[in-house]
Amino acid sequence: MTDKTTIEKNVVGNFITHIIDEDLASKKHSNVVTRFPPEPNGYLHIGHAKSICLNFGVAADYQGICHLRFDDTNPEKESDEYAQAIQRDIKWLGFDWGRNKFHASDYFDHLYGFAEELIEKGLAFVDDQSPEEIRENRGDFNRPGVESPYRERSVEENLTLFRGMKAGEFADGSKVLRAKIDMQSGNINMRDPVIYRIKRMHHIHTGDKWCIYPMYDFTHCISDALEGITHSLCTLEFEDHRPLYDWVLDNIDIDCHPQQIEFSRLNVSFTVTSKRRLNQLVEQNIVDGWDDPRMSTISGLRRRGYPPAAIRDFVKQVGVSKKESVISMTVLEDVIRHHLNQTSPRVMGVLDPLKVVIENYPEDQVEMLTGANHPQDESFGSREIPFSREIYIEQADYKANANRKFFRLTEGREVRLRHAYYITCREAIKDEAGNVIELRCTYDPESRGGTADGRKVKGTIHWISAAHAEPIEVRLYDRLFNHPNPASMDNFIDAVNPDSLRILPNALLEPGIAEQDADVVYQFERNAYFKRDKTHEKDKPVFNQVVTMRDSWAKVEQSAE
RNA sequence: UGGGAUGUCGCCAAGUGGUUAAGGCACCAGGUUUUGAUCCUGGCAUUCGAAGGUUCGAAUCCUUCCAUCCCAGCCA
Fold this sequence. Notes:
seven-stranded mixed β-sheet; RNA-binding
């Protein structure tokens, strides 16, 4: 208590950890086993990150384990490509299932056995009704269901029929196995739910062994129980399924009964996370594939340059509750910035170059100046930066007739060049159209690394020696949507931000950076954080903007207008 | 006129009958600064969806009401 060995938790205390605490205290459980159970039918997104961090995080916090289980009960939509991508994404997020990788399909034999057990107990029957009849007879919110005419078949007949289903004697869709529960139930999930259907389809794991496949509600609870899961965490929409989860386990011979606990999904403002919508963005070529840096997919976040540790911090900060919520994107950005501020080496990059000639600097001279790679952390070391008579600065760092609030260049004003000298703007050269194309400046040779006479200058701007600058392409990203909750719209495509990607083909980077480590996120000082894109090549360097820096000047400038 | 859930500051979220109702983001005001970044300081809910009630004492217990979300796949 008094020492500093307190280990930082992965998950902050919440209603789920309270339940676990109680279960441990009451000796209901002596350990914690959770699971992350994706269906391999799509790519993971930021919403899944919450579930992953919660399940793996809680397990780690309690010295327990977390299984990875592919919920592969519907071969129609599943592929191994997705399964591989899911594993890659979980690992990238920093979690490890060790040897505990399972598939619901591993249990198909067990599941089949439990289904026969229900039949033998008179708790399941083979129904010959068509899908339409079943739907019609299920009733609705205001109308109870009608029992199937096949509901009272004998155990023997049901067994024979179900074995026939398994043996491939019946056509797809011609028969199903249903649990016999309660057609009057207010909970529609309990109105004799279908638990097995006939579907002649190749399965990614079991191949063509089966032509009947168990439904989610029958499979999930049993899979949890077979694996000894203690707490089965899922999202809110499964609350109505919990009675069925419990019914199945209560009515078969199995000695484990995990507790299903539901929490709310993670939604982030100005993004979408539904598979359907993400897919639409890809299909309509609104984005550059599933890993487009603007996508909320894990692969998109990775390509964008978000550090996995920051995503974990984000999920942690967001918390866990049962309240439907939309987290502000600023929370995500803040966590990313906070992380990157501590871990990113600083570098100078000019996004929108403006040429500057320093008239009193010798024509052929090149000086190597030393720049610290991190202003607060000396362990980052320093680098040599070439300085010469012609340099590039940011267009935005010059303004004609600027007022006193503008700390950068305007005629007659002096600023500091980062890591270098003071320069004073003497003249702006314009083209015929009146655009400023070059600045003529003078420098103070005594001002290197400080000032001889102690005079202070308000502004410091970044620059790159013209002769040494490396041309790069820079991609700037803004929110993909202009609406805080695109999913709530009739057509979310209408909310797509047409300016979410801006390509700057003529950006410049200080030398010796572009070909360094592909995984490093750099801070282009006074601009933003950048990381090499996957399309980056030696002769065509491409950098993605990860996140901008906070910009209080933008606010000042805006309020002045 | 069905069933299941949720309502604490603009967005999240602690709180489990006795606290001046944590914290983060956002926002506002200052300070430091060779990044208008970072960092630091201060401000930001007499009130917990509403109304009643129980209690010496209620965000926490009870009642009623209101709002929002989920459910009618042989999807998960």
